[in-house]
Structure formats: C-alpha cells, structure tokens
Amino acid sequence: MNTSTGQVRINWTNTDKADRWQYELFPQGVVSCSDPDARCGTVNISRLDFTPTALNYQFRVRALNIDCGTDYSSWTSYITFTVHAPVTGTVYLDSNNTASLTGGVCTTGDSLPPLQAGASAVGIEQNGEEYAAGSVAADGTYQASAPYWDPGNNLLQLNIGDSHLYTCTCPAGCVYSGISSPQAGVNFFLIEARDPWFQAAGGPVTALQETGTAIRNYIPDSCTTDAGCQPYLITQAADTENTSGYLMTGGGVVDLRQEAGNQTASVDQDGRNIVGTVDRKVVQERYEYFLRLYKFPETPEDDFTTSANDAQKPTLTPQNDDINAYYHSGDLRIEDDWSVASGEEIVVFVDGNVTIAGEIQTAVGGFTAIIASGDITIDPAVEHADLTATDGLVEGVFIANGQILLPSRGPENGGDGKFVGEGTFVGWSGIVMERDYDDYAGRKVENNLTPTELFKYRADFLLNTPEEMKVPRYIWREVAP
Q1: Which domain holds residue 101?
Q2: Confidence bin at 223 (pLDDT 50/70/90)
Q3: Which terminus of the chain is more exposed, N or C, with fewer CB under 10 A?
C-alpha cells in the first residue's frame, strides 16, 4: 500500500499486441460486477491502483487488442490476496508523564523529544495472528504493517528493548487495542524507569566507609518535578520543620544523583546539605558492648528455648535474675506481630541472626530493642502495598554486629512493597537494601516517585532508653591526695 495515497497497486505482466486490459476485482464474498463493492473495468497499462474497503480480494484480468482488431485473451484464473496497510507513529520520551488517551490514541500538549534508544520494535496482532514487526528508527519513528482493517481492532504493541529501563506512560502496558490499518500518528510515550532508592525522615544518616563510595542512592529526576515526591535523602519530620538531620561518612564519597557533579545537592530538605566526616574511629556499640552493660552472666539462661522459630513478644519475667532484658542463643524468627504499649520495655539479645517477618509496633512511651551478634533480616512480607503509606512497620532500636538486610522477593514474584521503619537501625557491617518495585510488567516505574525504604527518626526512643543502656560521658571518682 502507498502510505501517502492509501492505495494498493496490482501489477501483472504485459503481453504482445495487448493495448488494453479488462479486469474484475471483487472483495471476498462478492461475485458480480453489479455489486457496489466490485471494481470492474478496462485500463491501458498493466497495473491497477485502488483504495481498499475490505481485507481480502479476488482478482482476474485478460488482455485486449482494440487498436488493431477486437481480439480478447482468456481470463486468468482468480488470484486471492490480503491487503496489508501501514501503521506509523513515533516513540517519545515522556519524562513528566503528560500523555493521555484521546480518541483511541495517546497525545500530549507538550513538545517532547523522540526516544533515541531503548525501543526495539512495534508488532501487530489481528485475530490472534501476529504479523511482521516494524523496527523503531534512530529518530523514534516506526512503520509496521498489518492486514487492512478499518474501522479496526488491531492489537498494537511496542516491544521495549530493555523493559527495566523504560515503561509506557501511554498507552497502558505499551499496548493499543482498536487500531485501524492504515493509520498514522499512533504514538507511544515512555518514561525512564529508575532503580530503587531509600529515604530517611527527621534524623541523621551515617555510613562509616572511609574510601570509595560510602552512600550511593540515586534520587530519580522525575521526583524533582512531581509535587508529591520529595527529592532528598533526608526529609523533615512530618510533624515539625527544620529537622532534616545530617549525613556523616567515614571519608567515603556521597553519590545521590546520576548527574556528575551533583553528589551532595540533595542531602536534606532544609537545603543545608550537611555532610560531615568522622575523623577518628567510632566506638562501636555492638552486641558485646550492650551485653556487658546489662551484666549478663557468662552463660545466660535462654528465654526462647521452645519458641525461637516463632518468637512471640515476651511477657514473662526474664530468665536471668535481676536483668531487665531477654536472651536467646541461636537464630531467632519473629513471625507474628509484636505490639509494645506505652510504658512497656522490651530488650532482646540474640547471639545469632534475627529474622523479622511480622510487624513490631512500639507506641510513644514504650521501648523496643533487638540486639544481635549476627544479622537482622526484615522479611519482604513486612510491607505496605499502598506506596503512599508512611506508618511504621518495624519500630524500635535494632543493632546488628553483622548486617541489617532488607531482601527482595524478586520481580518474578510480583515485586516488593514499601518498607517503613521507625527508630534506629544500625548494621555495623552495613545495611543492604534490595527491595525493588519492579515486577517485569511495568511496576519498575513506581521507583520513580517512591522510595522502597523509608526510615523515620523517633526522638521518644532516646527519651525512653533504659538506664542500663545509658553510659555517662565522664566518670568521676575520688583519688588519694
């Protein structure tokens, strides 16, 4: 089909002495030249251009010699053919998500740049049958071909070269349904899907790595243009102002944006962008340190001997006399939710790893601490499906000699929900955040506007810290004169 005229051309071989050709062209199901959809006539060249109104046709032709006589050849056998027509458009980069569906196709009032990379082909399906795809050119344009259908219901899909980098803002799922062929201006609009990132609110963030990159947390560009997104590593607390906190490293660099030279411009919402350096070895208040403060015996009694695989919030008096804390030797798993009320104080020492698979809610006036000699893992099941939620899921003071781990359930399992922690989270060997909204089906773009992990500072935990955990800055004692 000619894309400019919308006509289809039929060619046949010229024969000696022929100066005219008589033809019959019938849409499928038509068998008479008297039918209004039939095309019957004579031409003086060996081709016929026509505008299709149907998908399938049958055609035959015979040669005439009128100038020198009245000779007629025999009719050719009917040939049947399907009309193919072009569908064209452009793939645009829609960074601010402005495109919308209007009249069956996506449009925008903004002037957008074409996508230079990332899209591979546009394929068409009609009645369950797939047809050859058209590749996307370097300037973002494409042309695909499909059997004629007007008004149509072609299924038109953009196959993105790397679905982890881009996703469609319009149409949903990068799929049109109801497209005619031929049709022009069938455009696709993509947004670049970012990698996951985390955020803190109302308090400090510290990473003690001395060389290399101490913190790499790319805040997406799209967050800077969306009114509902706060493009900072540390935001103000929800109930106060000017309490963003600060960032400390052991000397390693901070990388908060993908653009070069913009490493620390997004540290805090206050605009101070404070980045300090710890110039001496920090006293690491680890599992052993707090165990000594509580004065546990050399071989403590175990408070979770029969419930380590499903540890409930302890309610009985601790096994170790005169020690206001609980102890377990080995790994500990919390399956069910814990609720710590105002006035309650729960401190648990674990000589091993801890897995938190249930929520730990700590009311203002209460105190919860879990201190482990190994890792503390927060299961992916501890999540908010509502990505706008900011209520804490795990609340308290969590200290691990090893790492604090927030693993992902994986894109193949539907991607992750949002984690919100309140309090203090310390992994002396690092904090590893692997959650990602990506589900291989379009959710990755949710990373563009929402952090996968949010940590909120709780000043009330500092006020309610047990006396056993407090150490005076100076120790005074009388000495002999």
Answers
A1: 85-192
A2: confident
A3: C
